Amino acid sequence: MKLNDALGKVDGGLETLLKKIEKQGTDLNPEIDLRIETLNGMLDRDEFIKNFTWDDTKFPRTRSLIDTAATIQERVKKADFDMKSFIDEYSEANAQLNSLQKSKGANFLTTDLSEVIYGKVDKKMFVPEDSKFLVNLLVVVP
Predict the structure, then answer these.
(1) What is the domain partition of the chain in residue ranges?
(2) What is the pLDDT of residues 40-50, one digit of tens each?
């Protein structure tokens, strides 16, 4: 009974993690080719299943099935935590990028135009500041 419960938890956790990885991958690149990385190279799902061999170094056959399930569940939890960290870092970097793009591409009401106006236009083009009847007026038309 314990083994059945342990394997149910492992199966559910692993399926959830794999769906998160797949969703994040397709969100980043809709044309992504998800493959499994092994010591023999990158394999697609069918190749991996056909060539599957049990790794006795990571999961010795002498260990009880409950202990093996617990080890796998711990690895799934660590991978899930790493995935959440990755998603959080990506979201934060994406938010910072969007913020920078908004500040760079802001409209003319909120953008400082002094660099554009005074840096590229000759001062002779403007009315002197001590003029009593004329005023400099800048009209921006998008």
Answers:
(1) 2-104
(2) 788 888 888 88
